[in-house]
Automatic annotation (TrEMBL):
Keywords, in A-Z order: Membrane, Receptor, Transmembrane, Transmembrane helix
Domain (Fibronectin type-III): residue spans on this chain: 81-175
Transmembrane feature ranges: 186-209
Top-rank taxon, per record: Eukaryota
CDD domains for the chain: FN3 (cd00063)
GO molecular function, one term: cytokine receptor activity
Database matches in SUPFAM superfamilies: Fibronectin type III
Biological source species: Enhydra lutris kenyoni (northern sea otter)
A single GO cellular-component term on record: plasma membrane
Gene name linked to the record: LOC111155682
Protein name, UniProt field: Interferon gamma receptor 2 isoform X3
Keyword check for Transferase: no
Length: 284
C-alpha cells in the first residue's frame, strides 16, 4: 500500500497529508494518484513550488519516504485535451461543442482552443484561437468527410504563463449539402431526364422511319364488311340482291342518251346550214 504527503517548504520541514487537498491519495492499492481537486477552493496553490513524497506500507511495515522532484503547477502542469466533444454536421460546415479539460477560476486563467482539421487524405489546417466552447467550421466542401482534433491552450494570469494542451482523439464526419449543391443536383436531374426523353423520342422516330411499312401494317385498321353483307351473314334468309336494290338510289341509275349524227364530207357541204344548226342543237 502507498501513502502520500506534500510540502511547500524547500527544507521539507513541514509536510501535509494529501487528503487535506480534497483528493484520496492515502492507502492506495495502485502506484498512482490523481491530484485533481474536488473543487476550485482546494488543490495545490498555483504559484507555490510543490514537493511530494511517497512510501509503501505493508501492515505494520513501512518503507522510507521517497521525495519527488519539485514542480510548479504554473509551469509543470499538463493540460489534457477538451472533453465531451460533440460534432454536428451542417451545410458545408461542422459545429463543434466541448467542455474544458478542467475548471479554472476566471481570476487565475482561461483557455483558448484550436481546431486541427483536414479533408480525408488531404492537408491539415488549423483554425483558432477560440475562447468559446462552441466552434463552427464553415467554408467546407459539401458531402465531404473531414477529420478533426481539438486542443486547449491554458493561459495563467496569476503567474503570467501559458501551457499548450494535448490534442483530442481523431474523429471524422461528413458535411451536408448546401443550398447551391441542392440546386445543382436538381438541375442535373432535370437535364438528365430531359436528355433521356430526347434520346427515347429520337430512337422511336428513327425506328418509325426505318420500319415504316411494318408500322403501317401493325397500325392499319382491318377491312370492314358492308352493312348489307353483314346483315345477310347474320340472317341468310334475307335476299341480298333485293336489299342492295333497295339501298341503291334511283338517281344512281339515271343516264343521258347522246346521238351522234355524221355525214360524209360531200354530203355535209350540201346540207343546209339550218339542218346543221338543228342537228347541233339535238346533239347538245
Amino acid at each position: 500500500m502507498t501513502a502520500g504527503q506534500w510540502s511547500t517548504s524547500f527544507s521539507g520541514s513541514r509536510w501535509y497529508d494529501a487528503n487535506d487537498l480534497g483528493v484520496n491519495c492515502m492507502n492506495l492499492t495502485k502506484p498512482e494518484c490523481n491530484f485533481t481537486p474536488s473543487s476550485l477552493s482546494k488543490g495545490f496553490p498555483p504559484h507555490f513550488n510543490i514537493s511530494l513524497r511517497v512510501r509503501a506500507k505493508l501492515e505494520d511495515l513501512a518503507s522510507p519516504w521517497l521525495t519527488v522532484p519539485w514542480f510548479l503547477s504554473c509551469w509543470n502542469v499538463t493540460v489534457g485535451p477538451p472533453e465531451n466533444i460533440w460534432v454536428t454536421p451542417g451545410e458545408a460546415s461542422l459545429i463543434i461543442r466541448f467542455s474544458s479539460p478542467f475548471d479554472i477560476p476566471p481570476d487565475r486563467g482561461y483557455f483558448q482552443y484550436y481546431v486541427h482539421y483536414w479533408e480525408k487524405a488531404g492537408i491539415q489546417k488549423v483554425k483558432g484561437p477560440f475562447k468559446s466552447n462552441s466552434i463552427v467550421l464553415d467554408g467546407l466542401r459539401p458531402l465531404r468527410e473531414y477529420c478533426l482534433q481539438v486542443k486547449a491552450h491554458l493561459f495563467r494570469t496569476s503567474c503570467n504563463t501559458s501551457r499548450p494542451g494535448r490534442l483530442s482523439n481523431i474523429t471524422c464526419y461528413e458535411t451536408m449539402m448546401d443550398a447551391t449543391t441542392k440546386l445543382q443536383q436538381v438541375i442535373l436531374i432535370a437535364v438528365g431526364v430531359f436528355l433521356l426523353l430526347a434520346v427515347l423520342a429520337g430512337g422511336c422516330f428513327f425506328l418509325v422511319l426505318r420500319y415504316k411499312g411494318l408500322v403501317k401494317y401493325w397500325f392499319h385498321s382491318p377491312p370492314s364488311i358492308p352493312s348489307q353483307i353483314e346483315e345477310y351473314l347474320k340472317d341468310p334468309s334475307q335476299p341480298i340482291l333485293e336489299a342492295l336494290d333497295t339501298d341503291t338510289s334511283p338517281t344512281d341509275d339515271a343516264w343521258d342518251s347522246v346521238s351522234i349524227v355524221s355525214f360524209p364530207e360531200k354530203e355535209q357541204e350540201d346540207v343546209p346550214q339550218s339542218t346543221l344548226t338543228q342537228n347541233s342543237a339535238a346533239v347538245c
